[in-house]
Amino acid sequence: MDEELKNLKIDRSKRRSPAPSRWAVLWIIGGVALFLLLGAWRLWSNKVNSGTFVEVERVQAVSSGAAPEGVVLNATGYIVAAHKIEVAAKVIGKVKWIGVDKGDRVHEGQVLVRLEDDEYQAQLQQAQGQLATLQARLDQALHGSRPEEIAQALANLNAAKADLDNANTTLDRAKNQASEGLTPKQIVDDAQSRYDSSIHKVTSLQKAYELLKLGPRQEEIDALRGQVEQARGALAYAETNVANTVIRSPVTGTILARAVEKGEFVTTSFVGDRGAKGYVVSLADLNDLEVELDISQNDFAKLHSDQHGVVTVDAFPDRKYDGFIKEISPEANRQKATVQIKVKIARPDEYLRPEMNASVAFVADQKRDSNANAAAQPVILIPASAVHDHAVFLVLDGKALRRPVKTGAISGQRVRIEDGLIGGEDLISNPPAGLKDGDKVRQKG
């Protein structure tokens, strides 16, 4: 039994690993140390080279001759049509035909849209018949009775008088016979009734004959005339409705938008995009364009009515147009602290389109005093996005340097610097939020 228990024991000496070599231990320690050194170097390098990436551009100073001479203010805005028209229908109906599309040039009076007019044609026909009936009645009253009618009335009157004489004779005979006892009392009563009836008939026909000779009363003629005028008004209204189913261009211009298609229902008031349409097309005269500008209240004193300026657009910067202030808003915008003005473009061409970005360089009056020293000073224009709180950030030795500046007029997306920069500086064109003086920065790219 003891021998069997000894055989069951595990001999641990046989499973013990041999001790590692001295070189293996040195390699392991060296690798760990190298890894720690690389990590420390990376942390130090990141700390030394850390900085915010920024966009940098070199400040350029150009001679004043590069800028428009005598410019007192530069402003940006949008080109708008001076008179944009939404051509609407005067009557309701379904579109039968449309003959223009977006961008088409149209002339005053040109047919743009036709509406279905079946109902309006029926109303017109009804009004025409009503007028004809009333006009005939008025003509009859004005011309009086015809000679044949008067002769017929006289003949009827004479016949009634003859019947009256016959009834009178019959009545006398019946009375004489009754007095002699030859005729009963009933026969006398019947003869008396016929006689009385004949008298009334003669009286009636006598008055009718006299009325025919006199003709209708003036009051009746006036009433008929009033009814005729009313019918003429209804006819004119029906004719106008038929004419209004043909929609024409009110002015010469260009189609800016087409709002309807064939088969759509047009009403006299706007319902919605999916319902009946309140107008069929919108158009404007592209030879009558303006630039709409919002001028800061701080710069408003530099401008006045009819002041001229040079207009340019971003799409065609090499083309310049003469303009002048046509309209100054009578009230300011409280939220924006601006005053809206409109500059009329004197001679627009086919390059200009409504809603284009436009810049206007307002020129001083010819009576202004010349200043040679100011003209000789260089002009510095930088991105407007670079200026925050009347200061800019420059890049110097990898750090952001805050520099106060004095700004002037704005030209497009750039602002003129009157003081604080001389040219050649490395400017952060769009400093990130939270950038402070002395922060480390790195240039993108």
Briefly say what this structure is.
With 445 residues, the protein is of the alpha+beta class. The protein has helices at 2-8, 22-49, 118-143, 147-179, 185-214, 218-244, 372-376, and strands at 52-54, 56-58, 61-62, 71-81, 84-87, 93-98, 105-106, 111-115, 246-248, 253-258, 265-266, 281-284, 289-296, 308-313, 321-328, 338-345, 357-363, 379-383, 391-396, 399-404, 406-411, 414-419, 426-428, 441-443.
Short key terms for the protein model shown above:
single chain, 445 residues, alpha+beta, conserved putative lor/sdh protein from methanococcus maripaludis s2 fold, Elongation Factor Tu (Ef-tu), domain 3, OB fold (Dihydrolipoamide Acetyltransferase, E2P), 4 domains, 6-stranded antiparallel barrel, 4-stranded antiparallel sheet, rod-shaped
Describe this structure in words.
The chain contains seven helices and 24 strands. It is of the alpha+beta class and 445 residues long. It has four domains: 52-66 and 375-443, conserved putative lor/sdh protein from methanococcus maripaludis s2 fold; 71-83 and 285-367, Beta Barrel (Elongation Factor Tu (Ef-tu), domain 3), CATH 2.40.30; 84-116 and 245-284, OB fold (Dihydrolipoamide Acetyltransferase, E2P), CATH 2.40.50.100; 123-240. It starts with a helix and ends with a strand. The relative contact order is 0.18.
